């Protein structure tokens, strides 16, 4: 339904009137073009996320939220280098990180109900990552970097301090990076090839 939007907007959401317009996929472009735009995209997206979280106020600042979670550097590689991969499309990127954040927070909390639960957080991390992977497979939202999103609340004290605020922080990072990818990947290429499922 993107064709119903003004074309300038639909273009930056991945819509093309015809295959003759160019900018279709990574396979259609010269190596130097991919190298240039992937470098620009990764740099700009990570800088924007870090700038937002360095200057964010409220609860996330009070809880000393990290400027960026490591999984998003791996996501940036997918979003700007392999834009035609199903793993880099918006659905698995956003929902993969979201599901993994929820599971990543919930599993250690269950372990910590036990007075000695902190001794077994290493096990909680492995379990959270495994459950999150199975859930992503079940919902068809596989995004490999999101596995680190599930693991982090079990192994990082700073992230543990965020508690349930970890989930909106992950969502905010996902949305900012997705918007950046839509802008930069559609300058000379096409992203995404599909939003929900392949045609």
From TrEMBL:
Source species taxonomy: Eukaryota, Fungi, Dikarya, Ascomycota, Pezizomycotina
Domain HPP transmembrane region, chain residue ranges per copy: 31-192
Keyword Transmembrane belongs to the record: yes
Listed transmembrane segments: 34-53, 65-83, 95-113, 120-138, 164-184
Transmembrane is among the record's keywords: yes
Keywords carried by this UniProt record: Membrane, Transmembrane, Transmembrane helix
Name this protein carries in UniProt: HPP transmembrane region domain-containing protein
InterPro entries found in the cross-reference section: HPP, TM_HPP
Organism: Ascobolus immersus RN42
PANTHER family: TRANSMEMBRANE PROTEIN DDB_G0269096-RELATED
